[in-house]
Amino acid sequence: MFSFKSLIFNDEIVKKAQSIAQTGAWEYDPGSQSMYWSQEVFRIFDQNPQTADNSPAKIAEQVAGKLNKADKSKLDSLFRACVQKGTPFELELSITLNNEYQKHLLVCGKAMGDSKIVGYIRDISDTKKALTEKNRMLEQLHQVHKLEAVSRLAGSMAHDLNNILTVVMGYTEELLDAIDSDDPLRHDLKEIEHACQRANNLVKQLQSFSHKQAGVKKVLSLNNTINELQPLLSRICGGKIEIDLQLEPKLGYLKADSSHLEQIITNITLNAREAMPDGGKLLLKTYNLKPPAQFFTDNPDIIRAQYVAMDISDSGVGMTEDVMEHIFEPFFSTKKQTEGTGLGLATVYGMVQQNGGYIRVSSLPGKGTTFTLLLPRSSGSPAEIASPKFFNPENEPAKHILVVEDDEAICDMICKILSKLNFQVSTANDGNEALIMIKSGGLKPDLVLSDVVMPGLNGIDLAALLPRLVPGIKIILMSGYSERVISQHGKRDPRIPLIQKPFSKSELESRIRQVLAEE
To answer: Could you tell me which of 90, 101, 99, 89 has the C-alpha nearest to residue 125?
Structure first.
């Protein structure tokens, strides 16, 4: 038989165990209508067991006062069924304490053989918080997988579109060169050319979104970029929107792709215009920023650096928290289904990340929206670009170019352009055929213009083998894929230039003559 001392000792152990488990016991006797709470239940409800009124009516009043209407109704119904029919119950509840914070509870009850109702109340606030965080992380993971799938699709689409645009742009330029300046067809061809340029910009956005277009980074002034864009931004906003520029005079320089930066500002401006259908104010503000240590703790993926920052704020309709959670997702739009803007701000998010930056959005319904952009500050300054040397064909024998391209339409178009530029041209369908022509056929081209991704021997491997066969040979690689995809097919010698499809006739000629002029 246990001694009284042992019973007290065991009671202390139970109290400690309940405290650790954040679980309190309760008992209700329908006959005497008495209610018992363990000490832990009092703690859960922020009550002092020494001073609290422990009468059933007062306890019921205390509990009911902390429940919302729906939870109170459920608990009343389940408790009555347990008392009258012996039906056990389990229910999750939310209580509000001190009108400030919420606790999440699990309440269970069961009828016992002595007609009493016994149960427990468990504080599951930490569990719910962990579960909410887990679900948030799972949702983020789901979004990452979804974005990666769209990213791969965008990268593949960009490559195919680049090949098509290379042909369309090439033949359009050929036709423009062939017809008189007053020919009525010239206007139509110029429209085709302009459409190709717009399509080319769209492809660049696809590649930027897919994180596969690294861009050409250089040290530049954000203030200069904004000033140069101001006429375009004014046209975008129209007469009803006032543009206010607040540019820090001593703003640091940053290293980024200038076209990416222009697209970021332009896209956010377009978004702001849609938020101000009746007019308003658009503010572009630049400043230097050294974030506090906590910022890098909260954002571990952000490099520790000083930043050049920019706020783009509008006085528009604003956004709810739910909308802000999805604002950078592809194809997300608050517009009607027929008015969506496609990739939208997902493109902006991708380009900011590619340039090592950070972007966030803050907004309130009816109070406008602010996009804050941070880009790492550069210690350098913009430098003058030296004019390249070009090969002068006058009084020089015709140079021989070998075009290695598996797409017949692109190959034919390039050959026509090069022939009209007075180059001798040979063609090969892939790298293996090119090697055979050089090894067995005795072909010794001055320059090889080769696609990168081809069946069999790719352009990168071909470029590595050619100098051993033809010392001093010049090589140019071309591709509709981006640098990241190209790197998956081998390590490209950085000294070998790469021209991205689609390219214009003048771009191709300029690159070839520049490479031929190099020592």
So the answer is: 101
